[in-house]
Amino acid sequence: KMDDDDGDVPQLSSHTLAALQEFYLEQQQKEGMKTSQGFNQYSIGSIEEDWQLSQFWYSHETASCLANEALVAAGKGGRIACVSAPSVYQKLKEQDGKGFSVCILEYDRRFSVYGEEFIFYDYNHPLNLPENLLPHSFDIVIADPPYLSEECLQKTAETIKYLTKGKILLCTGAIMEELAAKHLGVKMCKFIPKHSRNLANEFRCYANYASGLD
C-alpha cells in the first residue's frame, strides 16, 4: 500500500526498475557499438523491419542487384525514385552518390533521418505529393507496394505513372502478375528477389523495359 505522502504517484517495483535500467543499458551499448564500428545509417537493418507496416527488407544481394539495375536504367546523372522500397534506397546510398540522385517515398517516418531525400508517402493518397516533385521527373521508379491487393497496386501505380519518365521496376508477389500487367504494363523478369527473412508468398520483379534482370 502506498503512503498518503506519495500523492497517488505510482511507484515502480524494484524488479521492474531493475529490468528497465537493464534495457536502457543495452540500448546505450547498442548505440555505442554503432558509433565504434563506424555505423552506416544506410545499411540494411539500420532501421528494423516493422511487420505491422508489412515491412520485409531484401537480402543484401537482392538489394544490391536492384540498386545496380536502377543505376544502369537511370543512366549517368539519372534520377531514381524508390517507392516503399527503402532497402534499395539504402543500397543506392551506400554507393558513391555522384552521378545520380535518389529519393525515398515511404510511409514510415523513421526514414525521415535521411533528410530532404525522404518524402512521406501514403499509397491511399497516391498523388498527395510535394509540389517540388514534378511529374515525369524520374528516369526510373522502383516500387514495392506494401500489400498484395489490387487496390494497393492500383493506387501505387498512380504514383509510379506520375513520377516516371517511362521506366518502371516493380517488386511484388508472383500472384500479382496479371494485375501488374494490367495497371503498369510490366512483365515478369527471370530474376527472383530474396528477403532477409523468408516470405510465405513467392516474390518476383517486373519491368516495362529491357532490363538486366533477365
TrEMBL record:
Q: Which GO terms describe its cellular component?
A: cytoplasm
The organism's place on the tree of life at top rank: Eukaryota
GO MF terms, alphabetically ordered: nucleic acid binding; protein-lysine N-methyltransferase activity
Report the principal subcellular site.
cytoplasm
Question: Keyword set for this entry?
Answer: Cytoplasm, Methyltransferase, Transferase
Q: What biological processes does GO assign it?
A: methylation
Q: Where are the transmembrane segments?
A: none
Write out the annotated subcellular location.
Answer: Cytoplasm
Task: List the catalytic activities from the record.
Answer: L-lysyl-[protein] + 3 S-adenosyl-L-methionine = N(6),N(6),N(6)-trimethyl-L-lysyl-[protein] + 3 S-adenosyl-L-homocysteine + 3 H(+)
Q: Check the record and name the SUPFAM superfamilies matching this protein.
A: S-adenosyl-L-methionine-dependent methyltransferases (SSF53335)
This chain belongs to the protein called EFMT1 methyltransferase
